[in-house]
Amino acid sequence: MRALTFNPDLSFADVPDPVPAPSQALIRVAAFSLNFGEIAYRSATPRPGHVPGWDAAGVVVRAAADGSGPAAGTRVVTFGWSGAWAELRAVDTSELAVVPDSVDLGLAAALPVAGVTALQAVRRLGPVTGRRVLVTGASGGAGRYAVQLAARAGAHVVASVGGPARAEGLRELGASEVVFGPENLAGRVYGVLDHVGGRQLAEAFYRLEDDGVVMAIGRAAREATLIDFELAGTRSARGRIENFNVATPFGGDLAHLLELLAAGELDAQVGWRGPWDKAVEAADALLSRRVPGKAVLDL
């Protein structure tokens, strides 16, 4: 089958078809989305024939042998830590969800890592009704989902972006305030959903309310975080930072997000879409911050 691989740069290759385990379904991929992390933090020494990719949607061509999961012909969205950037994908049935007929498969492909990360991070903050929640990197894929889901949970959402162009559409998604970096935030916040790391994570921490929490989700800045815990007058008395990692399996959370998408209560925020032979162009646009939201490639 045809697949995109790093060899060492992103290019097409012919690789063997995947062989599903008994608990896996075989999917004919229709579309997949790109994530900043799988490109920016790819291995410096990729394995020959290894197929990267986390998020893909398509149609089941062979149901799981153990009887779990949907039947052949079912439209699904899938997650895994590899294997998405190919014509065929073998995926555990616990890591997929059935896509409603009204939902485009390309939009569904934008959901898994970014959408489920945002959903679980908002859930991890606990009750946020009426509380200020800061989302850093709010213009990215996970950030735009976080703005929507935090607002849906009742939070007063403050979206932090790099500049006016990156702020486009965030108020319509539920942001009550938009700031250009946490250092320009007025007042304090209960929670932070940080997708940037580095200096921005430190600045956000200094602006926590007592008992506030920073969810350290991503490291888009690609720099270390240095925090002065003794910086008088600019930190909460009992604030904390939690190293957030998304939990698997994804199936249940994907089904919930698809329900919201089908009902018009969630926007997939696809900012770039094209054929998969434009993958290099899409990856470059994503890394250079020219994509608001998600980049989706169609097969």
From TrEMBL:
Residue span, Enoyl reductase (ER) domain: 5-297
Annotated Pfam families: ADH_N, ADH_zinc_N_2
NADP in keyword set: yes
GO molecular function: NADPH binding; oxidoreductase activity, acting on NAD(P)H
Keyword Nucleus: no
Database matches in Gene3D superfamilies: Medium-chain alcohol dehydrogenases, catalytic domain, NAD(P)-binding Rossmann-like Domain
Keyword terms of this UniProt record: NADP, Oxidoreductase
UniProt cross-references to InterPro entries, sorted A to Z: ADH-like_N, ER, GroES-like_sf, NAD(P)-bd_dom_sf
Name of this protein: Alcohol dehydrogenase
